[in-house]
Amino acid sequence: MKPLIHATITDLCSNTNTLYGKIMIVDVGCSSGPNAVALISTAIDSIHSHCLQINQPPPEVCVLLNDLPDNDFNVVVKSLVTLRQSKKNIVVTGLAPGSFYERLFTSNSLHLVCSSNSLHWLSKAPEDLTRNHIPAFDIDEHARRERLPVVCEAYAQQFKKDFSLFLELRAKELVSGGRMVISLVGTRSNAIASKFILFPGIVAQILSVLVVEGVIDKAKYDSFYVPLYGPSIEELREIIEVEGSFSIRDMRVHDPRTEMTTTLSTPTSFVNNLRALFEPIIVQHFGKVMDEFAMAAELYWSLDGSLQEERARTSRAMLAVSLVKA
């Protein structure tokens, strides 16, 4: 996202009618830890670099970070304090807890919205599946494959609804000519088989082992939905164009297979990755089963070909998009 943020800042700082000597930057879905201020820090560095080049004083900066209320904001606050001490033109920092699928900021107040690795998370599991008790996964491979088109379409529609709402809400909060730079997990292909991102499929397979072993109930397994969808770049473009609040400045597809190989290189890193992504969802639905899940996950990793087969079925990619408010 760094080149997109740098180009966006250059555009914004070149347009004095947009900034008026101040800039408000927001990161929605900021998480916690070192990544919480990474996008904001990149944007501020770009501001300094641009202003030095044109020999002008940098604008005053207001920084706001958003995530769900359960996020560890104690860590985020400490990161914001450190950031403010190191970046002298930051005047105001703040937090905005809440879902980014609702209004978070006042109208026409933001100049730049960033979001990294968050928007593939849906507001909820697809209603077409939950209402009709259609499992997203199935222990029976044949049944799962037969149901896959229906399941994928339900997830696609939920993503379309959520992402369109996200665009509509942020357009209300951004100033005229305001910018947005986002990244999310997606796919390189429109093929149905690629639409389940790698890790949810693996989680479902590991949980199915726990069903066979009697650790979790089959009915619980059938009612388990991961509220996550990875769109293709074509889907993303179509939703943005149909919703109409933004024009696309740049779209990029990054193949993360090299990094993913490192992430999955040992059983410990593999299990830790799954726990970091899915433990809250698993525990909320199944209870205290993570010790058994971790053991089954290590066994899955050790089975020849299991991980490679699952990776071959997906076409996971990171999608990055730069938008300007129309």
Explain what this protein looks like in three dimensions.
The chain is of the alpha/beta class and 326 residues long. It has 13 helices and seven strands. α3 (38-54) links the parallel β1 and β2 (60-66). α1 crosses α3 (38-54) and α11 packs antiparallel against α12. The model has no long low-confidence stretch (mean pLDDT 88).
Gist of the model:
This protein is of the alpha/beta class and 326 residues long.
List the secondary-structure elements in sequence, H or E: HHEHEHEEHHEHHHEHHHHE
Kindly state the number of beta strands.
7
How helix-rich are the residues, as a percent range? 40-55%
Low-confidence stretches: none
Looking across the biggest beta sheet, what order are the strands in? 3-2-1-4-5-7-6
Biggest pleated-sheet summary: 7 strands, mixed
Query: What is the 3D shape?
Result: globular
Instruction: Evaluate the radius of gyration.
Output: 21 Å
Q: Oligomerization state of this entry? A: single chain
Number of helices: 13
Structural class: alpha/beta
Distance between the termini: 21 Å
User: Into which percentage range does the β-strand content fall?
Assistant: 15-25%
Name the average pLDDT: 88
Layout of secondary structure:
Blueprint: H1 2-14, H2 16-19, E1 22-28, H3 38-54, E2 60-66, H4 73-86, E3 90-95, E4 110-116, H5 127-131, H6 141-173, E5 174-187, H7 198-212, H8 218-222, H9 233-243, E6 246-254, H10 257-263, H11 267-286, H12 290-302, H13 306-313, E7 316-325
Parallel strand pairs: 1-2, 1-4, 2-3, 4-5
Antiparallel strand pairs: 5-7, 6-7
